[in-house]
Amino acid sequence: MPDPDEHIVVRDPAMLRLYEQATRAANAAISVLILGETGVGKELLVQSIHAQSARAREGFLSLNCAGMSETILEGELFGYERGSFSGAHQARAGVFEAVDRGTVFLDEVGELTLSAQAKLLRVLENRTVLRLGARKETVVDVRFLAATNRDLARAVESGSFRRDLLYRLNGFVLTVPPLRERRTEIEPIALHCLKRAFRELGLVETPRIDAAALRALREYSWPGNVRELRNAMERAAVLCSERTICRDHLPPEVLSLGRVPALASFAAPCTPSAPSAPSAPSAPSAPSAPSATDKPLKLALDSPHVCAHLSVREEVRARTRTLERARIVEALARFDGNQTKAARALGLSRRTLVARLSQYDLPRPRKMKDDKPSLS
Question: What is the pTM (predicted TM-score) of this model?
Answer without folding.
Answer: 0.64
